[in-house]
Amino acid sequence: MDFTTVILVLDSALRLATPLLFACLAGLFSERSGIFDIGLEGKMLASAFFSASVAAFTGSVWLGLLAGMGASIFLALIHGVASITFRGNQLISGVAINFLASGVTVIVGQSWFSLGGRTPQLEGAARFQEITLPFAEALRGVPVIGPIYADLISGHSILVYAGFAAVALSWWVLYRTRFGLRLRAVGENPEAVDTAGISVIGLRYTATIICGALCGLAGTYLATGLAAGFVREMSAGRGFIALAALIFAKWRPGYALLACLLFGLLEAMGNRFQNIDVLGINVPTQFMQALPYILTVVILAGFVGRAIPPRAGGEPYVKER
Amino acid sequence: MQAEQAEASGRPVPAIELRGISKAFGPVQANRDISLTVMPGTIHGIIGENGAGKSTLMSILYGFYRADAGEIFIRGRKTEIHSSLDAIRAGIGMVFQHFKLVPNFTVLENVILGAEDGPLLRPSLAKARGLLRQLAEEYELQVDPDALVEELSVGHQQRVEILKALYREADILILDEPTGVLTPAEADHLFRILKGLKEQGKTIILITHKLREIMAITDTVSVMRRGEMVATVQTAETTPEQLAELMVGRKVLLRVEKTPARPGEVVLEVENLRVTDEDGVERLKGITFELRAGEILGIAGVAGNGQSELLEVLGGITKGEGEVRLAGVPLALSGKGADGQSRRAFGIAHVPEDRQKLGLIMDFFAWENMIFGYHHDPAYQKNALMMDNTAIRRDAEEKMHRYDVRPPNAALQAKAFSGGNQQKIVLAREMSRKPALLLVGQPTRGVDIGAIEFIHQQIIALRDQGAAILLVSVELDEIMSLSDRIAVMFDGRIMGERLPGETDERELGLLMAGVAGEAA
Hints:
The complex is a heterodimer.
Chain A lengths: L2 H30 L7 H19 L2 H25 L4 H24 L16 E2 L4 H4 L5 H9 L2 E2 H19 L1 H11 L1 H6 L4 H27 L11 H11 L4 H20 L3 E3 L2 E3 L1 H16 L21
Antiparallel strand pairs in A: 1-2, 3-4
Chain B lengths: L1 H7 L7 E10 L2 E11 L4 E6 L5 H8 L7 E6 L2 E2 L5 H6 L2 E4 L11 H6 L8 H19 L14 H14 L4 E5 L7 H16 L3 E6 L2 H7 L2 E6 L2 E7 L5 H9 L17 E11 L5 E11 L3 E5 L6 H8 L6 E6 L2 E2 L9 H6 L2 E4 L3 H5 L6 H4 L19 H14 L16 H13 L5 E5 L7 H16 L3 E5 L3 H7 L2 E6 L2 E6 L6 H8 L8
Parallel strand pairs in B: 3-8, 3-9, 6-7, 7-8, 13-18, 13-19, 16-17, 17-18
Antiparallel strand pairs in B: 1-2, 1-4, 4-5, 9-10, 11-12, 11-14, 14-15, 19-20
């Protein structure tokens, strides 16, 4: 494997990690506030569809982004109403949202575009374009650092950079701000928050909306950055992989970045090395492509050490008599 | 207006005045037309049995519930308290019985939660650190500000709760059953803190059902019974007996009446009993004692010195090493036969320390709870496949009447009963089969006075019928008044044995602290 290949695989890993990263952070905000969310997948899918559709209609990816985030936040609010206001079961609500998104995108897509649930191919300003960072071309000739800067770090869409910025921002919000302190508290012991005179419900809705917004970014990047349009079920389980990454990361932003990069790398390798020989044995393509999913199962089965979820997670808050 | 009038007349304005507070939960009238005046700079006790409405009243004051009727005056000013935030703004701080802390936050983070100065944490944390140091010196409220709350002892967690209130500049502090979870030493420390706060002019409301605490620390005491305020008296002018009578509404025996024990055959022999816990820590370090029929051996000690492990290993819940014989027959301490079921077959009944965890299934009905451990009894079987639920229910109701469980309704879930009545359900199950040996841990923890009297009488009655009783309690009063012999445990060992008539609290206290007396 030569240096160029390594750079190419890593470059692809960054792209593939981005939607996971947004979704993982989305789950982090929601679960840190005590609302389990297995509906990340559905929100991503809905936002992928609506962002691609609006981008296709208007030719503006930014309006697409707005629509994608709007759709995702709308679904997040449904989850919020069901699990916060009506104190329903958060898992069931999440499953329902996944089904809803899966069905609605295909039916509405077929009715709008008559392309079998796809949107038209997006081009030009209807997609997020790659950004070339300053001096990328000038530095390309420099050994080692040149290709790393020009090919790996430069040349991604703005959402990839936003994803990395979101990690730092999430950490800062969670650990350095009043809102973060309260958010972490409400996921651990909502009674402490309530008796301190802060609204548990308000905090949880805020977290749910943030979760929706971040899922919206994830879905939009999927349809307008990574791909050039919407294809049915294009989220392909990434919402669940993001959940696995969240557990792997023990609900911390920094670790979430590492976990998502690992999943991204596995997916990139699966795509790149369709046929490889390990010690003379041919590893089938299917195995390579299944790698991220295998890791997901391993993580969810608890093989990565003890991960303590937020203590009040999954339980609706009821004022004690 | 009113404040000015009072000031002009030279009388101090009450810190809190409640007028005609009423609150109902459905058909249950938790508070009925309650009026209460608390003077500033005093410690005001509110005493009453469980369910008398003390906690409801304080929850109204703290904005957790809204009263159906009535007015609240804080420092002479009529105040509407709709939420905890209103209460905090009015200078009221509350220390709940079950702490409202975030376990994986540091002390500092817990203290500033909800009282941050701005959107960023750093300045608030710095300010709180300084203030905490100051408060620690002033009131003996030392806590490591950077420690995680989950790693603190219960006593220290309580200090964090008090610090939270003081950080919010509360000058009226309400404490709900604050000593329930504390060791005697921790409780003493708490009382010193409260006295210090009082000297600084703070007003303290202490809710409790322990008469001793009321007598020891309060200036004024108000008594509640069945949702009503029945009396407010100066502590110095009353007696525990009078307060107990006001609480229960009838005369109560505070001392247990019992005849001298007539010990018979040796029932339980324990030799060099050892227990090592999951972390490899030795909890029992070679315990040896004998227990005869018709006597009560009280095990005194500060919680966590091996008493729980002793009960659990004898009850077949944990494994141990050494020798234990019941009426001469060795009991299995590990492997086959070392379980609660086998122990019951031997005639050993066990009233565990934590009734909600080990004694009952809270979501199950009383009649179901009444047969656990004895469910193989042929009297409960209809045929080879089915249980005779009618018989079980009838049996349960009969026992509930006999053991004065209120209400005597076997169709209620265990969690629907008050603590004292839950305990009576466990006692009814374990004692009504006339066991040869009764293991009983903390029989009256969280139980109100009227029920304590009843439970003590039942234990004595069982002894007089010839049962051997091993009593573990952290309440020294209880040990002193029930036991025929007292053994004191410290650090997994028995420090000494005393006769209740020949010892006093001071000597037992020293043994409990690990200071050995002359050889027992």
